[in-house]
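The freezer alarm interrupted the setup, so I double-checked each line after restarting. Inputs confirmed:
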Amino acid sequence: MTDTAHPIIQIQNVSKRFGKVTAVDNVTLDINAGEFFVLLGPSGCGKTTLLRMIAGFELPTEGKILIDGQDVTGVPPNKRPVNMVFQSYAVFPHMSVADNVAYGLKIAGVKGGEIKDRVAEALELVKLGGFETRMPDQMSGGQRQRVALARSLVMRPKVLLLDEPLSALDAKLRAQMQFELSDLQEKVGITFVTVTHDQDEALSMACRIGVINKGEVAQLATPSDLYEYPANRFVADFVGSVNIFEGKLTLDDADKAAVDCPGLGKVYLNHGVTGPHGADVWIALRPEKIYLHVPGEGKAVKAAAQDAPDGYNFARGKIKGMSYLGDITLFEIELESGACLRVSRPNLSRHDQDDFTWGDKVSMHWRADSPVVLLG
Amino acid sequence: MALFARTPVAPLEYSRTLWMRLWVGAVMIFLYAPLVVLMIFSFNDSKRNVVWRGFTTKYYEKAMGNDQLVEALINSLTIAALATVASLVLGAVAAVMLWRFRFPLKSAIDGTISLPIIVPEICLGVAFLMFFAAVDWPTDLIWPFNLGAIIIAHITFCFPFVTMVVRSRLATFNREQEEAAKDLGASEWQVFRDVLIPHIKPALVAGALLSFTLSLDDFVITYFTSGPDTITFPVKVYSMVRFSVTPEVNAASTLLILLTVALTFVALKLQGVKAIAETH
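Predicted 3D structure, all chains:
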């Protein structure tokens, strides 16, 4: 992306109400030309409604939608320069693959020869060359999705909308398609807007992610910012796995801060936070950012790191649960306060899983740049 | 070894249990024995057609040579064809309207549209007789316009069947296909023509077949609406039977049976091909 990225889609104060239910609540959002944008959120959060309003299948109750600078709020779907890949793919069952892909071009009045060339090109793009005469019922779900992709891409839309594109595929195929979609997006340079409830999907494909909760944008950020700097408890909890503890802000300087959490202990941060002294805040700590030690060893390791005063960023507990996942092992640790902490530990050697077992007393520490202070 | 020669009957292999076979056989006899007897006796070389007196095809020649009978058959086929076309259009449009749109009195229309199926035929017949008399429907038109009254009556009881089968087909329609077509630039009409019609095609074939056969063999309503110049095949056969049941009647009936069976076969064949293509 260039630094002069211009917004291809501008959503301005858009709300959508179905009777008394507010599906989308005053959303303002810019999607840049050429980016792979993902709308992420739990089911029923309004993300699909937002996508359907961009496509033109729903009209906003309030607000405006601009595509490439043009107000399209009241423009019907068949007159918008965007195309959509539907969740069910919606491939026309009575048409061959080539006829499916050619349909939009025929409607647009493109000449026969050009149609043929563009259909062949589009099918080549989605790796379906040679499938022209197949009927949809002779194809697998993954292949039908490629037909739907080609059918939209052949129209050369300004924006391609994808509604839960990978939800109907099995795990292996999903991983492969994630990669292929990103690849395809780079190749054609069209803006992709995808809706998903799957955080892995969002993190792996997106340039930027808009997390939607209860019809509102909870956070708008790049995948790594979203994971490492969540703006609120909802995002921290929804994207990835996290430990959240309530606490009080006891120290807040420009270069350091401290939070006293009754559940976790005293937490020290090597950066300042914005919040009044004594404010109620939440600490979010990712499981993989916590180091696990046998008792006695922990304090020494932490002291060597020397990034937090004594008594901070340290906890003791007992292993309550373990699940071995191959690459990592997940630990459920009961702290002295009675609270539970989730810790993940990479199995760097083939014997790492033998280090701990149920009931073991352990100590933990984390670095001063690991915890995130959340105000909401 | 003979004891083990037969593979055991699996739980769902009903067709291999003896009692089930006997039962199915009994049902088949119950259903088709009268028809088979009718067909066999159409070749009976006897005037009174009670006792078998030898094989002949002369009654087929006689039936074919019976101008009144042939005229009645042509009338019947014409009425059935025209009533089918009209019923298809009316029925399909009604089904799509009820499925797609919201409008005043929708539930009332929804509830009454199948009334012509439920109302006893005799009542419909009398109603039509009185209606056409009341509006002073012209009876001296030239063929095929003189069949107008019968065609209208037939459309009335045929099109609800079309509506029924088309609606059940529409219930399986994936609305995302409609949206996909619109997304690709199609207008409402183009969506209807390119996506909806192909989807309901099997129902249209089934509806057409239903209408055609219902119209072809209708007696009661036709009896009340036909005049001296507009005799249909069933009405003609009835009047022939009143004199005596000759093998000629059997021959004519056999021809009609063969015609309907052939039509059904063609329709199923057409529908089968379409249905396979449209399983998704």
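Quick read of the result. Chain B has 13 helices and no strands.
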